[in-house]
From TrEMBL:
The lineage of its organism: Bacteria, Bacillati, Actinomycetota, Actinomycetes, Micrococcales. Residues 11-69 form the V-ATPase proteolipid subunit C-like domain. It comes from Zafaria cholistanensis. It is found in: Cell membrane; Membrane. This is ATP synthase subunit c. Belongs to the ATPase C chain family.
Length: 71
């Protein structure tokens, strides 16, 4: 039996799962911090969005690498 294909999509799926977990952790920490100190919301919100952007950038890099390696 011969198998055709590549593991690129599995790699992208794993990077997407990692991005989802990362976003969940970032916003869980943000909500926890704002719940403890509501006056710190203005300071914590940009940090949370930066964490979101960096985490999603890693998932996008996983998608790009899956296409680059597959070519």
């Amino acid at each position: 039996m011969e198998v055709h294909g590549s593991l690129n999509l599995i790699g992208y799926g794993l990077s997407a799962i990692g991005g989802g977990i990362g976003v969940g952790l970032v916003f869980a920490a943000y909500i926890n911090g704002v719940a403890r100190q509501p006056e710190a919301q203005r300071v914590l919100q940009p940090i949370a969005f930066l964490g979101l952007a960096l985490t999603e950038a890693l998932a996008i890099l996983g998608l790009v690498f899956s296409f680059v390696i597959g070519a």
